[in-house]
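Homework-ish question, so no full write-ups if that breaks the rules, but can someone show me the predicted structure for this set?
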Amino acid sequence: MSLGESSSPLGKVRGLGSAREGGEHWLTERVTSIALLLLGTWFIASLLLLPKLDPQTFTEWLRAPSGAIPMALLIIVGFKHALDGMKVFIDDYVHEPGSNFVINTLLLFVAVAGGAIALFALASLVFGAPA
Amino acid sequence: MVVSILHRATGIALSLAGLAVLTWWLVALSKGPDAYATFDKASHHPLGIVVLVGLTWSFFQHLLSGIRHLTMDTGAAFELGVNKRFAVLTIIGSVVLTALLWAWLMGVRP
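A: Not a homework solution, just the prediction itself:
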């Protein structure tokens, strides 16, 4: 493959095309965004409709399946969407493959750990002894 | 272009600060009244309120500009006039929704 001055425009782009991956990441970002449109609206609307914004009311709301299930989904989809979005940001600015890998791996660990902590807190609210 | 940058900036804010506050809130709730008192105090501190208002605005801005991006993914709304109007509407919308939400939280009822 010649990339010299004398090669044709077609010759220059041959072999430099699609990475043959990334399509799924792009689509996942959109699908999770649509899910978050619903879950985010549910979260805000629920907060606005709660009679009081104190820990007892929050706990009662989140202990019921109608609160716990969407909240669990919001945590999972929220962290996944954040991870996907932050990856785009990092890939745009960190080009050196080594640093890119390190930062993306760190990001993955932080996102999974954060999501696990939030899910565990929700689970202890739901399945723990009533406060 | 401003709205595109805002989409990214609010996305980063929501990813880092937004999810951190959500997780902190859930952990505080799950640990009982004493742990919750710390969160409650922080969220009522002037600085805490600035963060929460910033996050609600970020949420609405990211949601509305996200809808704009989804629309543009279908190939629609690329005409200059339409595109510009859509972009401006996301900013007006996010500011109005944030103001309405906080007015409601402060007890203002229609």
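Now go work out the reasoning yourself. Hint: Chain B touches chain A through 26 residues (CB under 8 Å).
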